[in-house]
Amino acid sequence: MNAKTMVYLVLGVLAGTAALPAKSQTSTNQTSDSEMMATMMAMAKPGDNHKQFESMAGEWTYTVKWWMNPQMPPSESTGTTVSKLVMGGRYLISNHTGKISMPGADGKMAEVVFEGMAIEGYDNAKKKYVSSWIDNMGTGIENSEGTYDAAAKTLTYIGSYEPMPGMVTKIRQVGKCIDQDHHTMEMFEDRGGTLVKTMEISYTRKS
């Protein structure tokens, strides 16, 4: 069975319009194809790990603090986040908007619009949480993988981003569920081999 046939078969089974292959070239191949299909179907199902995102869906206001220099007081701003579950609860998509003050070309502080989007999910094959982030402050895509600590109610992602050519920066993000209406996120960056907190966000549910 080639890859294209497998894709069509998966789509057909998911839609309920196709059955597993009745026969293959050999009984061994038939068993192999059936087992492969069963595994793929199992991998495609959302499970308990995906339920961690249910409490994140909704509209939120947020306050963010960030440190360009950990030795200096943080800058602060506010914004809104709209998060929704998609594709049968397999993924959480979050859109963030706000305004932040940044130094302009003339050295003076100017208020600019910030936009960011995150896609999060749980990869059944990797057995890890996965996340991708994009925003209008760059052109790269930040990819991370993480684990969930049920006792601490924290979801920790490990990843990296490259703000400038060759300047790959390792990051650690820790999200914590306080209750149904509040959660937080802290981000730490590798600064010379030491993880330093560079951002802290507090979310409060609007609806």
Q: In summary, what is this structure?
A:
With 207 residues, the protein is mainly beta. The protein has helices at 3-15, 27-44, and strands at 58-66, 75-86, 91-103, 109-123, 128-135, 142-149, 154-161, 169-179, 182-191, 194-205. The chain contains 2 helices and 10 strands.
Explained architecture:
There is one protein chain. Strands 1-2-3-4-5-6-7-8-9-10 form a ten-stranded antiparallel barrel. It is globular and about 70 Å long. The chain has 207 residues and is mainly β. It has helices at 3-15, 27-44, and strands at 58-66, 75-86, 91-103, 109-123, 128-135, 142-149, 154-161, 169-179, 182-191, 194-205. Helices cover 15% and strands 51% of the residues. The chain contains two helices and ten strands. It has two domains: 3-44; 48-205, Calycin beta-barrel core domain (Lipocalin, Beta Barrel), CATH 2.40.128.20.
Please outline the helices and strands:
Elements: H1 3-15, H2 27-44, E1 58-66, E2 75-86, E3 91-103, E4 109-123, E5 128-135, E6 142-149, E7 154-161, E8 169-179, E9 182-191, E10 194-205
Antiparallel strand pairs: 1-2, 1-10, 2-3, 3-4, 4-5, 5-6, 6-7, 7-8, 8-9, 9-10
